[in-house]
Specification:
It is a single chain. Strands 3, 5, 6, 8, 9 and 10 form a six-stranded mixed sheet that branches. The radius of gyration is 25 Å and the shape is elongated. With 259 residues, it is mainly β.
Length: 259
């Protein structure tokens, strides 16, 4: 029987001298603990020679457009940085291997080295703010990146050909909980109208996962002398951004209009 490895994400540097293997790119925060970022890095020892191989995880918050980055000022704040030397492996960094790491090391041979990072409990989840119409470049939000590179020391800027960058995400585990259906109502008065226009909206549930359809039930009771010409329903992303001062960001993610 031939052993089959589970799905593995693989990315190599432009020169092919260093390759990163990951079992997954989404890491869950279970509230009590967060999935570790672990995998294997395959190197070419003849190319690395007396240099070293480092890896780090960077979480960054971008709060402005890239085209506004001028004169050394960037609208980006690094939130968390964890770094480790992968090769030569430090004795203090050795820890028990995961099953995937064991299988990868066995398959890739003696030039493969494991790595392991733990994200702190207070690190934020990955989130992307919906770009406004006309915005260009990378959208604002929190993103994570796993970076592996060859260099003489961790502080020296590595060459692009010796670097692997892999985008990863930190997600919250959100199990479905049975709750009452979300409900909201409002009424509007009109001048010279004997009664109100009453609007009721309900959703089929409170929490939705990416890719799910949102079922919206709209009920209108019109006792006024006005006519309802159209109904518009929109999903709006709202984010409180706390930097130098607290600002509220709103953007329409999806909308539908009927007549």
């Amino acid at each position: 029987m031939v052993a089959v490895l589970p799905k593995v994400f693989k990315k190599s540097s432009p020169n092919g001298k260093i390759t990163v293997y990951l079992g997954k790119r989404d890491f869950l925060d279970h509230l009590s603990h967060t999935d570790p970022v672990d995998g294997v890095i395959l190197i070419d020892p003849d190319y690395v020679q007396n240099q070293k191989v480092y890896a780090h995880v960077l979480a960054a918050f971008r709060y402005g457009r890239e085209d506004l980055d001028v004169l050394g000022l960037t609208f980006r704040k690094d939130l968390y940085l964890a770094s480790a030397q992968i090769y030569p492996q430090e004795p203090s960094e050795k820890r028990p291997l995961s099953r995937l790491q064991e299988r990868l090391l066995k398959k890739l041979g003696e030039n493969a080295y494991p790595f392991y990072f733990e994200l702190p409990p207070q690190s934020p989840a990955s989130v992307t703010l919906q770009p406004a119409p006309g915005d260009t470049g990378k959208p604002c939000g929190v993103d994570y990146e796993l970076k592996a590179y060859i260099g003489p020391n961790p502080d020296e800027k590595p060459h692009k050909k010796d670097t692997v960058r892999l985008a990863i995400r930190k997600l919250y585990y959100a199990p479905e909980v049975s709750k009452e259906q979300p409900y909201m109502e409002t009424s509007k008065d009109f001048v010279m109208s004997p009664a109100k226009l009453h609007l009721e909206v309900t959703l089929d549930k409170e929490m939705y996962y990416h890719g799910e359809s949102i079922a919206v039930n709209v009920q209108i009771t019109n006792n006024s002398n006005k006519s309802v010409k159209r109904i518009k329903v929109a999903v709006v992303q709202v984010a409180d951004i706390c930097l130098f001062s607290t600002a509220k960001y709103k953007c329409t993610v999806a909308e539908i209009e009927s007549e």
